[in-house]
Fold this protein.
Amino acid sequence: QVQVIESGGGLVEAGASLRLSCAASGRSFSDYAMGWFRQAPGKEREFVASITWSGGATRYADSVKGRFTISRDNAADTVYLQMNSLKLEDTAIYYCAADSLRGRRDPPRWSADFGSWGQGTQVTVSS
């Protein structure tokens, strides 16, 4: 089982940038795809982005495509989410998650694909 811890959240103004980090420990990080999800107040958790174990393929929600970039550093057991041009509607708790399946070919998309979740980090975008 892998453990993940998110960091980097905070309060920023609309249009600003923020980078989230997710440090993993436990089983071999580099064997598993990773993903980011978010949950806004009163809403269900939603997919944001994911990346394959190698970093060779990524997937994004339409709402963040072109503004957010997911990346990973397997040597550092860390996955990142670079968030640019932040909008009010990006306000949410952001969760990092590790794939439950080793070596998945395509970036996973569904919550059920992920077996390990962090506690989340709050991102608040103000006007």
